[in-house]
Write the structure tokens for this entry.
Amino acid sequence: MIKKYKHIIWDWNGTLMNDVDLCVELINQLLEPRGLKILTREDYRNIFTVPVRDYYANVGFDFSKETFEYLGRLWIDEYERRKFECGLYDGITRILERINKLGIGQSILSAYAQPTLDLMVEHYGIKKYFTHIVGLDNIYAAGKIHLGIDLMKKLGNGKGETLIIGDMIHDFEVAQEIGADCILLASGHQSYERLVNTGAKVVESVEQIF
């Protein structure tokens, strides 16, 4: 399936790194003391979206009482404190190595803040697999289409030569915008049912990309 591509662009959170359960736990730590409905893992995967501001509004936060920026900072500070509790999905390093041996280039494109993204990729020992590691210049995860456009220019690939692998509808939107193909993983931050509605190819686990 992937041998025809010159380059694969990976998402980070929920695609390479398995942080879904931590994200559910941390949002509930904000919801519960404010008298808002806490989320199950299933609830979360049916609600979570980018831009994250819309997700916060959808779960009930009142921005007239507390700004999104304030709430977002509370969440990200706790996430940063606990981020190393998460790990890569099983088999990810093996898959990156397999793709590398096929001679296919690989990059990361993430709505995660650049300095922390760099730190995490280094921590998990996979930096060597990527020619570009691209994140946002802030913590608020508004989207990454503009980053994808810039990355595509650097790669210089033609139509049908680049594949995006992600776990969210936004990854499909980025692919559409930059002229890349897309495979979505149903093991991350959004449910299979939501992902399949994009019309993109959806697989249950990363091993199925081959």
Remarks:
- Residues 20-85 form one domain.
- The mean pLDDT is 94.
